[in-house]
Input
Amino acid sequence: MYNGLKIIIGLLIFVAFVTFPFYSKMGKATTKPDPKIDTPVIQELAEKKCVEPKDFMKTEHMKMLNDWRDLVVREGNLIYVASDGGKYIMSLQNTCMNCHSNKKKFCDECHNYSAVVPYCWDCHIQPKENKT
Amino acid sequence: MLETALKGSRKYWGLIFFLLAIIGVGFIFYLQQFFYGLGITGMSRDVSWGVYIGQFTFLVGVAAAAVMVVLPYYLHNYKKYGRISVLAEFLAIPSVIMCMLFIFVDMGQPLRVLNVILHPTPNSVMFFDMLVLSGYLLLNVLLGWTILGAERKGMPPPTWIKPFIYIAIAWAPSIHIVTAFLYAGLPGRHLWLSAIMAARFLASAFAAGPALIIILCLIVRKYTKFDPGREAIQALGKTITYTMILNVMFLGFEVFTAFYSTIPGHMHPFDYLYVGLDGYTKLVPMMWLSSILAISALVLLLNPNWRKNETTLAVASVAVFFSLWIDKGFGLIVGGFVPNMFERVFEYWPTIPEALITLGVWAVGFLILTILYKIATTVKEEVVYDKYGEKQIKI
Amino acid sequence: MSINRRQFIKIAGISTIMGLGGTSAVDLLQRNWLEAAQYSPDPKALTAKRWAMVVDVSKLKTEDDYKNIMDACHRVHNVPELGNPKDEIKWIWKETYEHAFPGQEHEYLTEGIKHKPFLMLCNHCDNPPCVRVCPTKATFKRKDGIVMMDMHRCIGCRFCMAGCPFGARSFNWKDPRPFIKEENKEFPTRMKGVVEKCTFCYERLAKGLIPACVEASQEAAKKAGTKPGLVFGDLSDPNSEVRRILSSHFSIRRKSELGTQPSVYYIIGGNDHA
Output
C-alpha cells in the first residue's frame, strides 16, 4: 500500500471525529425529556385534553402548526374543527400557549433534548414565565 | 484535469492564499450580518438595495459577455477566438457564482432561499432570473470543461456539444435581459422604467465583459507560457469600442428624454447622480469619475493607433471596466431609489462591513477564476499547438 | 464486469443526488392528513368583495387626532419604534400634500392644504406591483382585495420595496423586539430580515372587528361629537358608507396614473358626509 501510514493515520482521525458525539457523552447520564402540563389553565379544565389526542399531537404537532399558519394567514380561516367536533381558534400564540403557558417545561423540554430549534418564537411572543 | 490546479508555482499559491484570506475576512463580517441583520449595511427603508444588488447586476453582464467571444468563434468561424473561447467560458462561471452569492448575502432570511423553488412564482422576474442564471452556469461548466478536455486529448470537441453551444449563445443575452427586466418593469421608479434599459444593459455588459477578458488575456500571457494571440486581443478591442459607444449613446438617450421632456420625475434621479438634488451630492464625484473614465476610454479606443498599442488598449480596458462598474454596480441601483417615493432624498453609502463582504464575494470569484485559468493554461501549455495548427505558447 | 474508480464515483454521485431528490419529492407530494380535517372562517368575521378605506383629512384637525390613529395601529401590531429614518418601520404615518401626491402640488395651494398632513398606509391596490414581483408569493392578494403578507415565507429580497410606488413597505434591518415599547400579547412581532406593512387588520376582520385605525378614529369622533376621519367598508356594495361618501364627494388617490388602482381614497374637504 502506498503511503500506508498516512492513510491509516487519516482513517483513525476520521473515525475519532465521526464517533465524537458518542464517546463525548459516554457514561454521562442524560435525562429523558419529561414535558409538563401542570399549568393553571390546564388544571382547571374539566377534561384534560388537547385539540387532538395526545399521541397524535406528540408526533404531528409540527405539521399541524405548519398547516394552521397557511390556513389562517393565506386562506383566511380561523376555526379548527377537531376530530371530536370541538372548535378551536387556530393560533399558536393565543390558543396553544394559552393552555401550555409553561413553554420551558413543555416545548423546550423535548426540543432541547432533540436539538430542534423552531423559529416560532422569533415572532410569536412566548408566555411570561416565572423563572425558577 | 482538476489535478493541474494542485501543482503550481510559489506565486500561484501566494495568490490563492491571499484570496482565501480576503474571503475569510469577508466571511467573518458576513457572520456578523447574519446574526445582526442587514442593518449593518448602509441600506435603509428608502434605499433598500445597495452595493450587493449593484454588483449582482454588473456581474450578470460580465457573465453574459462570454458570448462576445463564443458567438464569432462558433457562428462565424472566427478562428482567432479558438484559443480564448475557453477563457471566456471560464470567466462566465465565477461571474455567475458571484451573482448568486451577491443575491444570497443580500437576503434578509438567507436560510429560506429554497422558498423560491418550493413556491415557484412565474410572474416574478426574480424567479426567472434564478432559472436563467442557474441554467447559464450549468451550460458554461459543461461547455468549458468538455471543450478543454477534448483539447487536452488532442481531439475535436464531441459533436453532441454543438446544440449546447448554440443554446448557450442564445442564453447569454437572455440572462442580462431578464436582469434588466427586474428593474425596467417597476412602476414609479423613473430611472429604471425605460424600454432602453435592457439594451443599455447589454451594451454595457458587452463592453465591460470583453474589457475584463482583454485584461485577463494580457495577465495570462505575462504569467504563463500560453499566448491568447494578438489578433484575438485586437478583435476584442474593436468589440469594446463599438459596445462602449453604444453604451454612452444609450445613456445619452435617457438623458435627452428626461431633460427635453423636462418631466420632473425623470430628471430628478439624473440630477441627483450628476449634480446633486436638494443639496445632497454624495454620488456626484463617483458618477463624474465614471463619465471621465468612459470618455477617456473612448478617446483611446477610437484612435486606431492607440487601440493597436497593447499598453494603451490595456489602459482603455481598465477605464471601461471601472467606468461601467461605477455606473452599473452603484449609480444605477442607488439612483433608482433617490429621490424616494415621496420625492424626498435619503442618501446611501456602503458601510465598512458591507464593503468587506462585497470584497469577500469578489475574492471568491477571483479564486474560482484563478483555479479555472490555471487549469486552462496548463492544458494549453501541454498541447502546444491550437486547433488550427498554430503555436499557442510563447517560445 | 469491472468498473474503474472514475465510474464508481460517477455512479455513486448520481445515485446520491437521485436519492436525495427522490425523498424530498415524495415529501412534497405527500398529502397531509389535515387536508381532510375541518376548518372554516369565524362566522362573526367581517367579509367584503372589495375592502376599501376613505381618509377624510378635513375631519382630522389636531396633532392628537393623527397620533391617536397611528398609535392604535402600531400598538396592536407590535410595530417597533427604532428612532431613526434608516431603520424606520411604519404601517400608517403622516406626509404633507406635496410628498403624498408628488406632481400634484403647485405654488399657490391654500395654506390649509400645503401644510395639511395626510395619513399614508398600504393602498391595497387592485393591481399590486409588490405581489407581481414577489418571488415566493409571500405577499399576495386575497379575494377581498387585501394585499397580505405571509411573514413565514418572506425571504427578505426586498423586491417588493423596489416595486411598491407608494413607499408602504418596511424592512426589518435588525431584530425589532427590543424596540417595541409595549407588546400586544395577542399579535406576533416580526423577526429580522422580513418585510412588513399594513394588512388592513386582517386578523381583526377575521374576528369581526374593524381595523384598529378606523376604530380609534370612530371612538375619538364619538367623544368629540364629530364625524370620523377614517371610513372603512366594501367598495362593491353600493350602499356601503365608503361608496356613499365617494359618490357625494370629490376624492383622489395616490399616483393613480400608474394603474395600480389603490383602494385608499382621500377627501380633502367639504361638507359633512352622512
